[in-house]
Amino acid sequence: MKSNQQVAAEPHEQGIAVPRLRPEGCIAIIAPAGPKAFDVAAADRWMAARGYSLKIFPGALQQTGYLAGSDRVRLNDLHDAFADDSVDAIMCLRGGYGSPRLLDKIDYTLLRRHAKPFVGYSDITALHLAIAKEAGFVTFHGPMLTSEVLANRKPPTETSLRRMVRGQFKAGSELAHPGTLPLTSISHGISRGRLMGGNLAMISALEGTPWAIETDGIILFIEDVNEPLYRIDRFLTQLRLSGKLAKIAGVLVGDFAGITVDEMTPLLRQTFEPLGVPVVAGWRSGHCDPNLTLPIGAMVRLDGGECRLWLEQDVVI
């Protein structure tokens, strides 16, 4: 399909709510990034036990080196899953690497015309940011098939995703964090803005491209895995020096697997305190268990002192 990268969503089109996942709906599995063998029968049973049917697209069952199928196969699966009116929601197989290779080939007009819940994280961050910029609808930073669904992650991983895409979180709803998993207030204050971000390494990698994150007035969400503290410092410094942090409204720091919040706190304060925006750390979204779903592109309100997050809009309709 012809690329439509030149046609970006107008500002008033950002944060568009998508159709909710209906009961007994069909969930598609695509693999825009890396490959991962999985038990198809087990996946089908998991979906059926919750009332959903499953549709697996070809690339999810292929491997081309470190990619799940060729670029053409993975791109076609993305387009076909959105265009297929029998599909109610799309879940990614896994992250790894490969999503950025598709960004200049995606038909964003097709995606916008057939908007529906799209779920994934890690390398899938590239698609979240590109869809937000080019198609304007809300996507979901949340569980993937092999990383969470078939791995029996701790609650509320599953319920967080289900409530989000089924429309049980409305404008004004608090996105509550498990009380047994404490959050850390890095900087106080209350602000609102679009929740944008995802994997910090991927955000950094997209700088200098047409799909670099747009940060004016956003609540920046970041998470990562297998990155030592000095590399996290490098990513944040790059964003600071490029001017991408100058106009953010707040920061929600997700899980940085292998690095504790206490270890990250000095760097977070050095980076964000001069900006005078609320910063909350320790939110359990990312490469962690549980992995809570967040709506990318949605308007939210963040209270840095009380460590609370609210939706300011409906994300599904």
Report low-confidence residues grouped into runs of 5 or more.
Answer: 1-12
Question: In what order do the strands lie side by side in the largest sheet?
Answer: 6-10-9-8-7-12-13
What is the CATH homology-level superfamily of the largest domain? Murein tetrapeptidase LD-carboxypeptidase, N-terminal domain
CATH class of the largest domain: Alpha Beta
- Discrete helix count: 8
State which percent range the strand residues make up.
15-25%
**Large-scale geometry:** globular
The percent range for helix content is 10-25%
| Structural class designation | alpha/beta
SSE map:
Elements lengths: L25 E5 L9 H10 L3 E4 L14 H13 L5 E4 L15 H6 L4 E3 L4 H10 L4 E3 L15 H9 L18 E4 L2 E10 H6 L13 E7 L3 H13 L8 E8 L3 H12 L6 E3 L12 E3 L2 E5 L4 E4 L6
Parallel strand pairs: 1-2, 1-3, 3-4, 4-5, 7-8, 8-9, 9-10
Antiparallel strand pairs: 5-11, 6-10, 7-12, 12-13
Descriptive account of the structure:
The protein has 317 residues and is α/β, with parallel strands linked by helices. The chain has two domains: 11-165, Murein tetrapeptidase LD-carboxypeptidase, N-terminal domain (Rossmann fold, 3-Layer(aba) Sandwich), CATH 3.40.50.10740; 184-311, Glucose Oxidase, domain 1. Helices cover 25% and strands 20% of the residues. The protein contains eight helices and 13 strands. The chain has helices at 40-49, 71-83, 108-113, 125-134, 157-165, 200-205, 229-241, 261-272, and strands at 26-30, 53-56, 89-92, 118-120, 139-141, 184-187, 190-199, 219-225, 250-257, 279-281, 294-296, 299-303, 308-311. The protein has a seven-stranded mixed β-sheet. It has a six-stranded mixed β-sheet with strand order 2-1-3-4-5-11, sandwiched between helices. Helix 7 runs parallel beside helix 8 (261-272). The longest helix is centred in the first third of the chain and has 13 residues, at 71-83. The chain is globular. The model is unreliable at 1-12 (pLDDT under 50).
